Amino acid sequence: MATRLISYARPLLTALTVLALASAEASAQDNYPSRLIRIIVPTAPGAPSDISARLISEGMSKRLGRQAVVVENRAGAGTIIGSEIVAKAPADGYTLLASASPLAINPAFFKKIPYDALRDFVPITELVSVPNLIVVHPSLPVKSVKDLITFAKARPGKVQYASAGYGTNPHLAMELFSMMAQIRLIHVPYKGGMPGLIDLLGGHVALMATGSMSVAIPHVRTGRLRALGVTTAARIQTLSDVPTISEAGLPGYEAVQWAGLLAPAKTPREIIDKLHKEVVAILRSPEARARLAEEGCEVIVSSPDEFAAFMQTETVKWAKVAKAAGIQPE
Predict the structure, then answer these.
(1) Three-class secondary structure of residue 50 per DSSP
(2) In this structure, are residues 315 and 104 in contact, taking their beta carbons and an 8 Å threshold?
(3) Helix, strand or coil for residue 221?
(4) What is the band of 116 on the pLDDT scale with cuts at 50, 70, 90?
(5) Which long-range contacts link 109-116 to residues 24+ away (Cβ below 8 Å)?
(6) Order of strands across the sheet with 69-73?
(7) Rounded to 5 degrees, what are φ and ψ at 116?
(8) Which end of the chain is more exposed for a tag (fewer CB within 10 A), N or C?
(9) How many CA atoms are closer than 13 Å to the CA of 71, on its beta-carbon side?
């Protein structure tokens, strides 16, 4: 009899334990956030992902009436160091990643990455989009995208372009340009966008794609640089007289830098939805839009599913560009 009671009691105890754990988890989600959220930014301070993260931190703290979010910069290894921290963090919504474009680019450049960007993160929302501007030194005898293509075709492998570094979005933006235009340019990588821009101003390289709009535009206005086009699908407000690369000669061309917010995989959907609602409300505020516009960033909010699809598209896109450019993962 005692044995029979024990056999009945065990499944009952298991069921009660499962219910208790489920109840505790539901309660934790209902009270979220009950402690400080940490947003890891895998880039240096001042990047679009960093600026966005700090706006989210300020906004959530105001909305909750207490310090709710802390931003931590963990730059290095092409954003891999900071991204790995989040990929391996508990899936409880208290460690988030303010990602940048390299999250979708890195698989084409590195054989061994300690996470899978499409498997080990759950997207919350895209945050901002940053256009690149393709500019040339005024000594280069080209005034349009079509002129540049004609000029480069006549001089294969002789026209040099600067970039913010090997494997960066501006690097691949120019490789996409070369692939679509069927030309061969020479890549000169720099340790950041500013050194490359300085050498371009000095005439040491012929052209570059730059996301530093606030720095490049004044030089375009004074004639020290010549703008050929923006890399977005539509013209941008601050340079409405400059065409897109697509309309200027390469139909379908688009290459933007972006930032987005993600959580570790298996983070409960209820928490993802709460974060999405809060972050979208913050980014859509006039104050946030104005602050980001000063940095040349456009607010781009999306649903978690839309952002997931975008990341998939970006990963496939840049893998094809890298392959066409003869880039081998290291």
Answers:
(1) helix
(2) yes
(3) helix
(4) very high
(5) 109/78, 109/166, 109/167, 109/322, 109/327, 109/329, 109/330, 110/78, 110/80, 110/329, 110/330, 111/329, 111/330, 113/80, 114/80, 114/84, 114/87, 114/88, 115/83, 115/84, 115/87, 115/88
(6) 69-73, 37-41, 95-100, 257-264, 121-130, 298-299
(7) -110, 115
(8) N
(9) 25
The separation between the first and the last C-alpha atoms of the chain, rounded to the nearest angstrom, is 67
Category of 326 on φ-ψ map: left (φ > 0), alpha (ψ -120 to 50) or beta: left
Could you tell me the pLDDT band of residue 330, with boundaries at 50, 70 and 90?
confident
CA distances from 136 to 78, 207, 256, 276 (A): 27, 4, 19, 40
Q: Over the chain, what is the mean pLDDT?
A: 91
Gap between the Cα atoms of 147 and 243, Å rounded: 14
Domains, the chain, ordered by start: 30-130+257-324 (3.40.190.150), 133-248 (3.40.190.10)
Question: Which region among 3-17, 105-119, 272-286 has the lowest average model confidence (pLDDT)?
Answer: 3-17
**Residue type, position 217, single letter:** I
6: number of Cβ within 10 Å: 10
CA gap 211, 168 in Å, rounded: 11
pLDDT tens string 297-319: 999 999 999 999 999 999 999 99
pLDDT tens, 32-84? 999 999 999 999 898 899 999 999 999 999 988 999 999 999 999 989 999 99
Residues 264, 313, 169, 97, Cα dihedral to 10°: -10
Task: Provide the whole-model pTM.
Answer: 0.86
Write out the two tokens for 190.
């720099």
Helices (H), the chain: 2-30, 48-64, 80-87, 102-105, 145-153, 169-181, 193-201, 213-222, 245-248, 269-283, 286-294, 304-324
For residue 22, the model assigns a pLDDT of 47
Q: What distance in Å separates the CA atoms of residue 262 and residue 248, rounded to the nearest whole number?
A: 35
Tokens linked to 78: 């092409």
Buried/exposed code over 250-263 (b: 16+ C-beta within 10 A; e: otherwise): beebbbbbbbbbbb
